[in-house]
Amino acid sequence: MVQITLSTLKTLCLTLGPFLLPRLLTYYRSFRTSSAQAKPIPIRPLPLPIYRSLNILFISTLLFLLSTLPPFAPENIFRATASRIQTPNDVLFNRLSTLRPSNTLTPADEHLKPRIASIDARCLYLQYGPQVLHSCPFCLSDDPLSYFWYALPALLLPHLLHLFALGAATSSALAGKEGNRWRNSVVMLGVGFALVECYLTGTRDWKSNARSVRAEELRHFYWDVRVWRGIGVAGADAVVAGLLYASATNRMFVVPPTVGERVEGAMKVLEGARGRMAALEVVRNVVVRDEGLRRRGEGYWRREGAVMAEVLEEREVLEGIRGVLGSGRVQVGKVEEEARKYADAIVAGTGIVPQQQ
User: How many CB atoms within 10 Å of residue 2?
Assistant: First the structure.
């Protein structure tokens, strides 16, 4: 497993703390302010753009979790043969040949054999993996940093793919404004993962395995980092997916609409009401101009008047009206005044002057 010392943690905190702490405080304060001031916003269904973003993050999570499985990792000959780092080269590759078809080493094994003959080379093998020692044309054991620079592109490649997935999942084109609001934060998260892995790989004591006397004591740093990278990135993608889901459905991190958005929404409502009123005006004109429809309308209102007159002449209704008026529960003067104000508000600005009675 990867060993992280107290000094390493202090260095990471001093390096990343000035960048992450102010942003975390800003998000916390804005979240408290918005939660205290904003009116309750109803929970809504998951928008389609966020659904696409969650699919991207799910695929990314699945791929990184699969990368932690042994079938997708390069072969570790020390783990496969249960050998110590001091095991003679011939013995090590004789054991390895028993694992090969026909008990014969492959050309890649033959090419690797002279490159890990020394203890330092084997330590670098466990630090940077087999591909670096197999393919690096300029690396020397006397210059271990050359192995780091050669391994750096392969080390950054999964993080670049992860950043591409995060960028796609929070882009305005795919995720809309609900996902785009998290873009800067998740990109910083992906960059932080890459920087941490580069720092741990570049600063770790690559000779630490030289002191191991048993196979169980070996630290397979390259393979351990692959596992922790996959788990960490998958966990980060799950957290980002949770943030997108919670914010897009108004469960958490709700951002109240701005003044401009509220004005735009009110204008849309007014435009819709104006359109419906215009449609009603067209229907009314058609009814008035068509003789048959006009007669039907007039007949309806005559029947309505006759029915209401008959209802008001019934004794129970008359007694009920007298009872309400006599009890004082309904103030006729106040009702008439409210009706007058309502009528004045309707004709206000139209040039129509109400007749005073």
Answer: 15
Residue written as token pair 């050309």: 107
Structural contact between residues 229 and 200, judged by C-beta atoms closer than 8 angstroms: no
CA nearest to 165, candidates 241, 262, 71: 241
Between CA 208 and CA 199 the distance in angstroms is: 17
Give residue-wise pLDDT tens across range 243-273.
Answer: 999 888 888 777 766 778 778 888 888 888 8
Q: How far is CA 81 from CA 52, 90, 94, in A?
A: 45, 13, 10
User: Cα(189)–Cα(179) distance, rounded to whole angstroms?
Assistant: 15
143 beta partners: 140
CA 171 distance to own-chain centroid: 10
Going by C-beta distance under 8 Å and a sequence separation of 6 or more, which residues neighbour residue 133? 112, 115, 116, 121, 124, 125, 139, 147
Q: What is the pLDDT of residues 304-322, one digit of tens each?
A: 888 888 887 888 878 877 7
In whole angstroms, give the CA distance from residue 93 to residue 104.
10
Residue 345 C-beta-side C-alpha neighbours within 13 Å: 6
